[in-house]
């Protein structure tokens, strides 16, 4: 699925553009001339070649889904914190993205920051706003071990090592913790607490250049001055397997990178992400989608803006029920989660139509599981 979304809630119109790209091929993702980067799942072929890891249980097994839901329990609770003719932008390393299962099942991209340039493998998260990197850290991940026994060294950002780095002071409009400041000219602190397993990132805000480019080989590179977090102390899952080398918040608030790019007039107030079944994807900043693309308005709460839309119907196996509820688009979760009454309506309708025998297992993270025989070649379920 590819989708584009507004990155600032201060404009008069807001939309999220949804396009099913599975049958159209990757040329759909390349047609908009945006700034972007590739995103990849950890177990896609390109990433296997980089990290030489393959420790996720076989896809489709009970153990696989247990691992996936455990990862979501860690990540999903995080604190959620222009002109149309602008050329869309991508990261300097390109707009490929990769999905890493062993690194929290998140989508990652290589970004380049500072002068001289250093690269960082950051997780892409539409469910949070702040972009932060491990930086002069007393608590962070410096290297990653692979199943072959090799060590992958991560770059650690240092403001002192970059000639284009600047401090962000407490009088900045980006400083949300001014009450923590001894004076207006002090360096602005930040702390993002995520709502699971004591996961957080703490440090100070800095400004430096994010190196971007376009898909057009004739276009020049763009060095965008952005504000981000110098993450000195990471806790919880950031010290284990989620976003060990930084988190790239893609949310709606004014401190997210898409919003900053739009505020500076470098891109349109939008970005797009395309995801492929092989774990490889694309991201572009300033992508407005096609003129014939469908649009869905956001439900925006200015005090806590998220990519939230209204759903009005649920269809299971040809049975369509009217039920209105809100849902948030979050690239940091693996599954779709429903609250009641939507969950009960969906699961009970599915179960009533399922032909397979119901399975009960205390080891499963799911309430509804079904048994199939080892030589069964098809599943009789209301999947249409």
Automatic annotation (TrEMBL):
Lineage: Eukaryota, Viridiplantae, Streptophyta, Embryophyta, Tracheophyta
SUPFAM superfamilies xrefs: Acid proteases (SSF50630)
An example Gene Ontology biological process: proteolysis
InterPro entries per the UniProt record, alphabetical: Aspartic_peptidase_A1, Aspartic_peptidase_AS, PEPTIDASE_A1, Peptidase_aspartic_dom_sf, TAXi_C, TAXi_N
Family according to the record: Belongs to the peptidase A1 family.
PROSITE patterns hit by this protein: ASP_PROTEASE (PS00141), PEPTIDASE_A1 (PS51767)
Pfam families (UniProt xref): TAXi_C, TAXi_N
Signal peptide coordinates: 1-31
Protein known as: Aspartyl protease family protein 1-like
Keywords associated with the record: Aspartyl protease, Hydrolase, Protease, Signal
Domain of life according to the entry: Eukaryota
Molecular-function annotations in GO: aspartic-type endopeptidase activity
Domain Peptidase A1: 107-384
The organism of origin for this protein: Quillaja saponaria (Soap bark tree)
Keyword Manganese carried by entry: no
Active-site positions on this chain: 125, 330
